[in-house]
Amino acid sequence: MQAPSDFLATLTTALPSVMTGLTLSLSLIMAIGAQNTFVLRQGLRREHVAAVVAVCALLDITLMTIGVSGLAATLGNYPRALNALALAGAAVVGWYGLSALRRALAPHAMHAQLQGAPQTLRKTVIQVLTISLLNPHVYLDTVILVGAVGAKQAAGTQGWFLVGAGGASALWFITLGFGARLLSPLFERPVAWRVLDLLVAAMMGHIAYSLWSQATVL
Questions:
Q1: pLDDT means per 10 residues in the chain (218 residues)?
Q2: Distance from chain centroid for Cα 154
Q3: How far is CA 76 from CA 53, 106, 201, in A?
Q4: How far is CA 88 from CA 78, 101, 119, 131, in A?
Q5: Cα 209 from Cα 206, distance rounded (Å)
Q6: How far apart are CA 157 and CA 170, in angstroms?
Q7: What is the pTM of this model?
Q8: What SS3 state is found at 1?
Q9: Percent of the chain, pLDDT > 70?
């Protein structure tokens, strides 16, 4: 059994890596994107929230672990693969942006956001996997950037870095998904959904254009 003094020494050594992972992960994940928007929408609908939160958090943790394990350097040597991924992501994000715009412009679509027939768990999981895995920024953030920083941590502290980074991701998605219900009174008003969908459409259109530009630049 580890002595208290040894445990405190280990904790003191690991704390900087934990905090580095925590702050880096939060700074990257808190920017509103397609994945965060989807989690927010599911939270507002109170539909399969636990499954969506779990999928997003586990994907982040898995990709961060792969990155810290060394895949960051490997992916960096294949820019064409990253460009192909960016084009696929632009197509998917653009499609979801058009869908949001269509919802915003439909005169009777807003009431259906909370009162319409719920999606199946399978369809919801497929959607969140598609949004997450076809977004190149997910790989750039988790695998390459987090992976590169994690790989540079002192020997024996990389695991602690992942605890901080993965914990930040899980905490964010739990807060976003389950905290969204606090906004339910606001989103009982159809105009709130119209504004949200217009913002989502604009944001996804910007992301799609950005990804397309990055992939096609000469």
A1: 58 77 76 78 89 95 88 65 68 75 64 60 92 82 79 79 92 91 73 76 74 69
A2: 27
A3: 29, 43, 31
A4: 16, 20, 25, 11
A5: 5
A6: 20
A7: 0.68
A8: coil
A9: 74
In terms of residues, how long is the chain? 218
User: What is the identity of the amino acid at 70?
Assistant: G
* Contact call for residues 172 and 30 (beta carbons, < 8 A): yes
> Residue 82 and residue 45: Cα distance in Å, rounded?
34
Neighbouring CB atoms inside 10 A of 23's CB total: 13
Residue-wise DSSP of 24-61: HHHHHHTS--HHHHHHHHHHHHTSSHHHHHHHHHHHHH
Pairwise CA distance, residues 170 & 54, whole Å: 8
* Interval 153-185: pLDDT, tens: 777 788 888 999 999 999 999 998 998 888 777
Q: Do residues 148 and 71 make contact, with C-beta atoms less than 8 angstroms apart?
A: no
User: Residue 65's pLDDT is what?
Assistant: 92
| Cα–Cα distance, 58 to 5 (Å, whole number) | 33
Nearest-angstrom CA–CA distance, 70 and 19: 21
Name the 3-class secondary structure at 120.
coil
16 Cβ contact list (under 8 Å, min separation 6): 157
